[in-house]
Amino acid sequence: MANPIALQVKDLKTYFYNDQRCNKAVNGVSFEIEKGKTLCIVGESGCGKSVTASTIMQLLPTLSRIEEGEINYFAGDGENAPAIRIDQLERNGAEMRRIRGSEIAMIFQDPMTALNPAYTIGFQIGETLQYHTSLGKKEIRQKTIQLLADMGIPLPERRVDEYPHQYSGGMRQRAMIAMAMACQPKILIADEPTTALDVTIQAQIFELMDDLKKSNNTAILLITHDMGVVAELADSVAVMYMGNIVEAGTVEEVLGQPRHPYTRALLQSIPVLGKGRNQRIAAIRGSTPDAYDRPVGCQFEPRCDFASPDCSSMPDEQNLSDTHRLRCWHPQRDSGSE
Predict the structure, then answer these.
(1) Would the CA dihedral through 115, 121, 125, 126 be positive or negative?
(2) How far apart are CA 188 and CA 213, in angstroms?
(3) Are the C-beta atoms of residues 11 and 199 closer than 8 Å to each other?
(4) In CATH, which of 3.40.630.30, 3.40.50.300, 2.60.40.1180, 1.10.150.80 is domain 5-234?
(5) What is the distance between the alpha carbons of residues 246 and 239, in angstroms, rounded to a whole number?
(6) Quick one: three-class SS letters along the chain?
(7) Which terminus of the chain has a lower count of CB atoms within 10 Å, N or C?
(8) pLDDT tens, 239-292?
């Protein structure tokens, strides 16, 4: 039996406007994340992964707006938990401020811009706890020190009073993760959370995220380029390209039986450990189109080896199984042929 849904995104369209031009950064994205499960979104830079996350958090820039779609957050713990329409909340309204950081938290990709250089790390983590919990000052400080210690930051009793410029890049990233996990959110959105960290700390952070998921039944939306991380942590995968989810399913379906040419191309471009220097790594030909001058129809058509006249129109989404869905005119078989 499936777990209750924590987050549901339905036909989401987020557009950016600049000089009378429109960038359809997210163009009809749909997915669900069950409580206690991890969904990984993968794809090349610029495909709309981070914009999707920012839309859920209602942290979009001024020249952007949600054109269509729904973002439903199921706040309660039961199967019949009431839905909160996040897309209908004011970006900086009281309800969104209450949810953001406590019930839905985000680990940002760039800690240099996410942390305020004028305040200590301890103050910034403590501010989250002060706003969303009833803890006193002494308890907040103890909790903050413990969070830093959990992230593997040495001498947390001293580091808690230091400023972001006194932290290394990896330590700033860990401080950001501590801030996001401080209130044990129901949904954790992690945008490339371990980019600046070495493999030992990466493993530690992912273990902490997994512990949070198991202990608090937290749903995790993980954005990453690392297919190894996807294979290890994800319950399901969504592959994005130019604002669309082109393939989605369980890890076994998407990584083990990829059907979209783009998914296959992504997997073929990754070196396999143990095969040595002579292995064939295939680059995806061409480059991503201009975001303000997109192809008509299938966005991958200019780079696809299986393109045909049909691809001049956008294919409908088809269900290959109860969990595996695809948007392509030419779904690939195991042999790689149509």
Answers:
(1) negative
(2) 9
(3) no
(4) 3.40.50.300
(5) 6
(6) CCCCEEEEEEEEEEEEEECCEEEEEEEEEEEEEECCCEEEEECCCCCCHHHHHHHHCCCCCCCEEEEEEEEEEECCCCCCCCEEEHHHCCCCCHHHHHHECCCEEEECCCHHHHCCCCCCHHHHHHHHHHHHCCCCHHHHHHHHHHHHHHCCCCCHHHHCCCCHHHCCHHHHHHHHHHHHHCCCCCEEEEECCCCCCCHHHHHHHHHHHHHHHHHHCCEEEEECCCHHHHHHHCCEEEEEECCEEEEEEEHHHHHHCCCCHHHHHHHHCCCCCCCCCCCCCCCCCCCCCCCCCCCCCCCCHHHCCCCCHHHHCCCCCEECCCCCEECCCCCCCCCCCC
(7) N
(8) 999 999 999 999 999 999 999 999 999 998 887 766 667 777 778 888 888 999
The closest alpha carbon to 235, from 8, 79, 41, belongs to 41
In this structure, the number of other CB atoms found within 10 A of the CB of residue 11 comes to 11
pLDDT greater than 50 at residue 337: no
Mean pLDDT, the chain, integer = 91
* Rounded Cα gap, residues 203 and 197, in angstroms: 10
pTM of this prediction? 0.91
In the chain, CATH 3.40.50.300 covers: 5-234
Residue 109 pLDDT exceeds 90: no
Which residues, 6 or more positions from 289, have their beta carbon under 8 angstroms from its beta carbon? 242, 295, 299, 302
Contacts of 87 (CB under 8 A, 6+ apart): 12, 55, 66, 69, 70, 71
Gap between the Cα atoms of 248 and 32, Å rounded: 11
Tokens 């991890």 identify what position?
38
Q: How far is CA 52 from the centre of its chain?
A: 8
